[in-house]
Write a structure and sequence with these properties.
This protein has 119 residues and is mainly alpha-helical. It is 95% helix and 0% strand. The protein is built from two helices and no strands.
Amino acid sequence: MTKIDKILLKLDEHDKKFDLINSKLEEHDKKFDQINIKLGDHDKKFDRLINTVLKNTEEISEIKQNMVYRSEFNDLVSAVDAIAIRVNKIDEDHVFVVDWLQRLDNKVEKLHKFSAVAK
């Protein structure tokens, strides 16, 4: 075997090793492609989560702006209670006024009858 044959043989061995390395690298590329696809899916899911969080944050801020605090609610209930008491008082007064008017009307009718009899 000549030196050239030995060199060619060595080169063939190196070619086989490079082919083996190349096939392993192609396998790794396929795995990386799968990982990239998964990462893309994760990115989409994270985007949806981020959008949901932002939407919820906006809604919570709006709710905070529009919500009634306990002290405000208690003030409102106190005001409604005061109005209800006044309405009850007016209703009671109304009953007494109606009764008084009925008695007054009866007296007026008696006076009418009396004056008609006196004529």
